[in-house]
Amino acid sequence: MKEKLTTLFFGIIGIALLAHPAFGQEQPGLRERADELFRKYEYANAAILYTKLADSKRPKLADLERLAHCYMQMKDYESAENWYARVVGMEDSSEENLLRYGEVLKVNGKYAEAKVQLETYAARTGDTARVNVAIAGCDSAVVWMANPTAHKLRNEAVNTSLAEFSVFPMGDKVYYTGEPDSHMQGVGTYGWTGNSFLRIYTADRAGDNTLHNPVIAVNSINNAPYHIGPVAAAHDGKTLYVTRTYPGKEGSVSREDRRKYMTNKLELYLYTQTDDDWEAMPFAHNDVAAYSVGHAALSGDGNILYFVSDMPGGQGGTDIWYCEKQADGSWGTPINAGATINSAGNELFPNIGPNGILYYASDGFPGMGGLDVFQATGSKATWTSPANLGYPVNSARDDFAYITNYEGEEGLAGYLSSNRKGGKGSDDIYGFTYERPKIVIVLRGTTADKNTGDRLPETMVTLYDGTRSIVAKKSSTENGTFEFVLDRNSTYTVLGQKEKYHADSAKVSTVGITTSDTLEVALLLEPVFEVGKTFELENIYYDFDKHNIRPDAAAILDELVRTLRDNPTLKIELSSHTDSRGSDAYNMALSQRRAQAAVDYLVSRGIARDRMVAKGYGETRLVNECGNGVPCSREQHQANRRTEVTVLAY
């Protein structure tokens, strides 16, 4: 058993952590409080304090490492990348940070950049075995994204801004696991994420497989104090197999800095339906003092129970195990499902499809990001080699809990869970269909330098659908060309990106096309980062007479964060401008506060303060004739209220 269980198992399903100080102490300082929260796995609260510590002229490497780790554990991978980018550039940063930076780049879909960091780690340490799977995943991901499968995903209506995942269909209903909002009484808060402990929900399943009318399930299966879920059911629906966090005091204990911490592991409970309620019974092979058990799945005939555990005798972190039903109805001794489907990493969320195919998630085989979905055919401990389901089933993030409820000649239908970009919350439920296309619509395009017209090879071209989700992604050829296959009655955005160039995009629509066709587009990219060059950050708005950063402005500033993060030698002046209404002195002060607020936001997202200058110009640099006393329209005044970036060094 690994000393530290995967956070993908417990980060999604959860552990409860209790800290018991073993001695009295004085009131701790900011760093001591941050470190204590970090040791208690209260990453959301620890990150707030580490961010304050990081905003100094000479921040400590350990503070930035822990801050980056907090965001990684919270699955805020964009923020984790921002901070790891700084960590690896600091003096005395270890090779281990190259590995972590490579991992977060991979989770963010930056496969070429991730591969550079992973290969650098291997070259410096000689430990190629540790990164071989991840590097192979980077190479495979590029191929899978350039050649997506015919799966069509939809974000289900039951999703919220919190986490929903792991659907189990049962007739015209489904069970799933979700985070209640903070207003639900009797549900505690999980310090790891800062959100409520998980509970089991039900929803209606319509004829087209869409999910509606979510409600929390009955209290008798939701009455434990910590995490509850996911759930699987016997074919008759009268027995539920529920994963939950053990609520007692027999968890494993660790010690650090003379403090004692208890980790509550996962256990599996069987709930049997009575006349009007559910009767709970623990799974016979739970051992909460030694290991976790959860994520149950039944074979088609109900005689084999598959589950996930980190019990001794496995191949790596968490493995798939199975028990066979005995003559008396009990479950026999657990047996490992074997080294073919289990890896040195972590296997999670198994499900058995109608045709007997095993679907499960793993981070131990070459994949696109964190957890990827794989399939294998067989039973018990005899299986074919696992096959990655490719893109778009898998993404750069965690993809898991893949389950089918229809498999036929025309295709497939079912559900999966993912925290991929573009969702409503941290983990979302996606319905999917797989249908064979009847007509073919091709998009052919070129990438070129806007100033010279020369073709730009190796330009990263991304195809987005109407919801800004990635459909496919590939590099243009050595001749600066690219090609995608499109769906009917759809709208797309195609985006070209290349280092040292401004991105260019174009809209494409197949609405109304009824026969096979070929569309064409040209992407023209403009060179950037010339010292002294100024460009406007469009759509940065402030409330009247205010300087705080609004959520819509934060989204624009996040793009600037990415530019600064990806170009570590870039230094800028960030300037704010007002219109002429109000006194000159007041406008100058207001613009300075707004510029400073924007810089402070960038610092909070991981950009070093010494790379930026905040400058308020008030009304001294109007772009039109709307000076003091000149009557102008609302639109003319708006043109003067702007935020600009000037390149100081590159």
UniProtKB/TrEMBL annotation:
Domain of life: Bacteria
Matches recorded under PROSITE patterns: OMPA_2
Subcellular location per the Swiss-Prot or TrEMBL entry: Cell outer membrane
Gene Ontology cellular component annotations, sorted alphabetically: cell outer membrane
Pfam family, any one: PD40
Keyword field: Cell outer membrane, Membrane
UniProt main location, coarse: membrane
Domain OmpA-like: start-end pairs: 531-650
Gene3D superfamilies: OmpA-like domain (3.30.1330.60), Tetratricopeptide repeat domain (1.25.40.10)
Protein name: WD40-like Beta Propeller Repeat
Source organism of the structure: Parapedobacter luteus
